[in-house]
Amino acid sequence: METRLEVDQKNNLVEIPSQGKTYPLPIRIIAKVVSYIFHPLFIPVYLSWLIVETQSYLFASFSSWEKTIFILRFGVIYIMFPLISVLLMKGLGFIKSIQLKTQRDRIIPYVVCMIYYWWMWYVLHNQPEFPKECVVLSLAIFLASIGGLMANINMKVSMHAMAAGVMAAFVMLLGFLQDIEFGIYISISILLTGIICTARLIDGQHTTKEIYWGLFIGIVSLLIAVKFT
């Protein structure tokens, strides 16, 4: 979503959304639903489930309960902790909206989530019973948060696009590392990436530039994580 800077009645510099293309209400509702279902907080958990379900040989020593705990651990670190932190920030007045609509609102959540993401990578990295693919994923998410924070200096880069970029690159990585047919999952991940990014554009939350940069950061973060894991 394009914005312009204006001075309000209190002489404060504020961002004003520019009027862009308006889509029919049903399409905007679908875009909003897609944005919630594939929120950046949820995608790591979806990917943890995908690893458990499709890479069963990596979890040969895990019981069914231990696999469930593994997915729940991702849910706690990547959903519960960030969500509670953002709600606390809103309650304490550190941010104006839990939707993090401005670059300023995103600074503290980025830093806080970076701590959670680093801790998840550190734990997985130092526990050899967890598959290497999980370590790569956790490191990619941590690196993406760093890239997002740096990009936030100049633009409101799309967090959805960053998460989608990590997702698509990670699923392709899984496909390259095994002999079984994985094309359907790669196709679905690429399709979902396109749907997610299109939904953010339809919802009017980001410009094309912010979407492309988000994808770039997500993909590069995964490639760097592979290189150093």
Question: Unreliable stretches, pLDDT < 50, 5 or more residues?
Answer: none
| Largest sheet entry | 2 strands, antiparallel
Helical content (DSSP H or I, runs of 4+): 55-70%
- Strand arrangement, major sheet: 1-2
Rg measurement, Å: 18 Å
Taken from the alpha-carbon principal axes, the silhouette is: globular
- Provide mean pLDDT, rounded: 88
Report a brief summary of the structure.
This protein has 229 residues and is mainly alpha-helical. 68% of the residues lie in helices and 4% in strands. The protein has one domain (22-227).
Question: Secondary-structure blueprint of this entry?
Answer:
Elements: E1 3-7, E2 13-17, H1 25-37, H2 43-54, H3 64-92, H4 103-125, H5 132-151, H6 159-176, H7 183-202, H8 208-227
Antiparallel strand pairs: 1-2
Question: Can you offer a commentary on this structure?
Answer:
With 229 residues, this protein is mostly helical. Helix content is 68%, strand content 4%. It has one domain. The protein has a two-stranded antiparallel sheet.
What keyword list fits this structure?
8 helices; mainly alpha; two-stranded antiparallel ribbon
